[in-house]
GAF domain-containing protein
Amino acid sequence: MRNKDPFFQDYLTLSTIEQAAKAEGRLLLYCGAGVTIDRTGHSWGSLILSLLPERKHRSRPDMPTRTQVGFLNSRSPESLASSVVYLLRANSGGGERLQRTLRDRLRAALYQDEGRWENGRLVEEIITLAAMRSHLGRETMILTTNYDTYLEQAYDRIRGNIPDVVSFPGLRVHRAGLASPVRIEPPNKTDPDEPGSYVDIVYLHGRLPPTGRGKVSWPLILDENSYAQSAGVVEKTIEDALKDASLAFLLGTSLSDTPLIRALSASSGEGCERLGVLLRADFAHNDAADEGLALTLARYRASELGVGLLFPDFPGQVAQLIHEVVLRQVFDVARPDEPQSLPYTDRVDAWWANWSARAGTDPHLTQRLRQMLAHAYEITRLSPAGSPMDTARERLLVELWVREGPVATKRSLRRWGRSSDVLPDGLAGKSADLERGSYLAPIRAFVDGRPRLLDVKDLDGGRHDLTQYTWKSFLCVPVFVHGAVVGVISLASTRRVQNCAMNADSETTASLVSRLRLEGTALLAVDAPVEATA
């Protein structure tokens, strides 16, 4: 279920954006596993399971598989980690061998090349916000429970794209409990003694960079023993950061980590204002009254810890929330000549009014979709089937789905056109509500705010015989205009995901995503300046 009112029209959301944009003191961003889950593919619990083998080995009959342990689903991640560490020590011999085993398996789980095309925007938005605040002379500290270095990689990537003549903050990377930083990058064209000249990233549970990208910051806090041994240092680090900040965002966390809870409790009433961003889907129930009660109880609990809560409907809205804070820092007031100066809802409504009246009525739109289809065939090295009745060859289809306005009343996507049609469907096309568990792949990519490759089995959920479907896999890419998702380009195949050409290898999929995003952006762009709607 969704919030009764659109998330970006809710008073608490709007006031949070304004408050964060104007925060003069230090901003604290606490980043849990959810911040990089779009890159790693792992929650905290599934990362622990990844340390176990996928299948049984004759040489290690006592080692259970991921599936066997996953079915139990009744233990906390750190409790499960204690059992896993015991098994790994018994099989590796302990000591340095155990460290190497943990290092190698965690790296394999955290840094998967196959998933790079599927990344979302949250990590980049966090670093962009920190850099923008630095430009205004404001400090930002990032605490992360993650081992991965995706935040650092985003910093390196963004800084690498900034011309040398432009100022950019330096970077200080810390490991909780160590007096000296483990990495320092000096600021560019900025006095290092000025406030905000550095962005600080603090690893609470250890740091595990990719191979060849730096040393591991041991210990990696994984099991109950390491949690207990590090608890004092981690709690003190969080507590001090909360007391020194003027505002704190808690992102990608379920508010269940013991050191965080203790630090929140210890600093309640004397620290900064704290705002937690929790997905509404994490409290989902089939009964609306039960879901409402779950949300209310979550608010009461957070209030006892001195935390206010926001409940985005979808994962993509978390990154969008941070992006809106960035835009509010850039633009103090709305300007008719600058679309991105408008609030989110006005921006998307204005895009819709302009696009639907001009580009959306273009009689050549279907031809442009066919051109996209031809490019997809080239990238996948497929030959187009001569007839729709030719079932021996793999066939592809391109669809354009657009965010229909006004967004306050129509929280839906509409299929505007298909490469197989003579003319676009336009307003007569199929429409579907924006919801997390939709059976439509374009909806799922939209609400996640990132590209998705989905199989018909995952979408159908066992409701129908899969042989009845013509299109069996879907590569869907959200399209951004004026800093907001306004549509999705969908590439469908007659083959299942495991056998389709668009999933032949990661390079092919990445090339398709880049091409669909580029051509989709051109398709949904509006040439003339947009103005706020009444």
Observations:
- The mean pLDDT is 91.
- DSSP finds 17 helices and 14 strands in the chain.
- The radius of gyration is 24 Å.
- Residues 173 and 183 are 5 Å apart (CA to CA).
